[in-house]
Amino acid sequence: MHGFSARRVALTSIAAASALAASLALAGPAAAVAPATATATYDCGSAGVGTVTLTAADSGGGKTIRVDSTDIRTQYPLKANTVTATLKLNKTSGGATSEVRFSGTAHAAAATGDPISFGPLPLTTGSLSDGDTTDSAALGGAPSETNWSLKLTVNKPTGSFSSYCTATGDQSAAFTW
Asked: Where is the signal peptide (predicted)?
């Protein structure tokens, strides 16, 4: 075996497997969100009204939500990572309700009329602990600068502008973190 004995190869394999098992045991369990995916209806004005799919994840190092919709479409071409998407959700913890926000600039380039797809968006405002729940809260009235659940800010060299969406109903199921 070119200078390696069968015994040496076996001992090396056992040592590597033991090191892997020990590192997995020390890493602890990964945090989970239930359910991982939920839907809600959002009104985004001229961009469309329809179902938005929210996909939540908790890697242990960060809580994120992805926002996707085939009903709501881009209104103009977008270069990759030029739109800051901010999602506001109601948080319930120990009977108290507050707000959390997930925000980031993570998306592929899109042509006019493409379905929206943003994220994963990291938790940027508020905190979430095990057992907390988050939900899209139904808002009355038209989407605006002061009345929104999802804000999309297009960042261009000449300036930025925002589009707003409101959740028109609660999620199909609240996320439990």
From this structure: 1-27
